[in-house]
Amino acid sequence: MTTFQTAAGQTPPPDSVSPRDSSLETPTSVSRLNETIRGFIQKWGAIWVEGEITAWNLRGGNVFGRLKDTSGDATLSFQLWSSTLRRLPADLKIGDRVVACVKTEYYVKTGSFSFTVSDMRHVGLGDQLERLERLRAQLRGEGLFDPARKKPIPFLPHVIGLITGERSDAEKDVHRNAELRWPQVRFRTIHAAVQGDRCVPETLAALRTLDADPEIDVIIIARGGGDPQTLLGFSDEKLLRAVAAASTPIVSAIGHENDHPILDDVADLRASTPTDAAKKVVPDVSEQRALVQQLRSRARTRLTQRVAHDIAQLEQLRSRPVLRDPETLLTGRAQEVWTLSSRGREIVRRSVDAASLTAAELRASLRALSPGATLARGYAIAHIDDGVIVRDAVQAPAGTALVVTVAQGSFAARSEGAVAEGDATTSAPSGSN
């Protein structure tokens, strides 16, 4: 038989078969091939493997489950016998991250693998919490926890979107408490896995559906309490970023008061329980009716007080004498107006008389100074042809044409020359002074 080395550097078991030992003419048997495979597998021994429990079915005291790679999509099935199960922690369940000691079994008759668990322990919770804290710090630094970016919850939503487990207590609590507070409340519920490997993708799909519905005013993501392992899906980065990017306000109602997945920080409102979410999203109709009644009573009291105050002011104004008998004010003012108008007329008359006297005096002065008055007394003014007034006899020698102006008109004359002073006096008009 040809001897060959395995990948681990070990010699295959005797009676094994290699590719060189078979050909078209000399094929090997199925049982010999399966025996060869089992011989190699038995060399592996027990292997410690880390993963997340995604299936845990208890049948006849034995467990048949499945582990999923925490960093990929690879899975493996395992079986855990009841004798081993009694030695393991009693709180193992779907969603737990564990390390398991598995031994590979290969059945020669069927040609199938089987992984049998000989030990299983919780592992990595501290590491997971550390990763969650790093993610929490990263999202906080990006502003996803900032209260300024959180959307307000509507006072009375028309339709509430609810993402929760099917037939879960969380769904019943939300519906029951919301309907007790406001009987006409409407829900659109989408069921999704609330733990395990289906939690994140199903919750994301439900969130996208409800966020795209224009009738949905607010979305509640709810589930009951659980250990940190079962709540890990609500700290998934994909889900958290989808919640932050949603246009509809989102309420986180995960677990109990002490549970605190990162979804609580990213959501627009955190409710400590599903019941608390119903109370925060849906107003209490009895409280609102009482509030309306209280506001009506306060408005009625305020209005009554204001009307009474205005009536009292009006009565106070009407009781004043001037408003009780308005003619009294007019009568008293009429005498004052008559006195002032009489005084005004007297002042105007005196001013006019004084002005008339002054005008007469100025008129008399003007008349006295006027050349016309002098001419009226018999004097005349002689002008040479060019309009020059003759003031000296030498200006009008004999033969000079003159224009003589008297009180009543003018006439032409011709000078006979100068006369003696005595003759001029005797020839003066008799009316002259």
From TrEMBL:
Domain of life: Bacteria
GO MF, any single term: exodeoxyribonuclease VII activity
Enzyme category, top tier: hydrolase
Reactions performed catalytically: Exonucleolytic cleavage in either 5'- to 3'- or 3'- to 5'-direction to yield nucleoside 5'-phosphates
Single GO biological process annotation from the record: DNA catabolic process
Transmembrane residue ranges: none
Record EC number: 3.1.11.6
Main location: cytoplasm
Occurrences of domain OB-fold nucleic acid binding (ranges): 29-121
Any one GO CC term of the record: exodeoxyribonuclease VII complex
Segments for region (Disordered): 1-28
Domain called Exonuclease VII large subunit C-terminal: residue spans: 144-359
Subcellular location: Cytoplasm
Keywords: Cytoplasm, Exonuclease, Hydrolase, Nuclease
Family membership: Belongs to the XseA family.
HAMAP family per the UniProt record, alphabetical: Exonuc_7_L
Quaternary structure note: Heterooligomer composed of large and small subunits.
PANTHER family attached to this UniProt entry: EXODEOXYRIBONUCLEASE 7 LARGE SUBUNIT
Role of this protein: Bidirectionally degrades single-stranded DNA into large acid-insoluble oligonucleotides, which are then degraded further into small acid-soluble oligonucleotides.
Protein name per the record: Exodeoxyribonuclease 7 large subunit
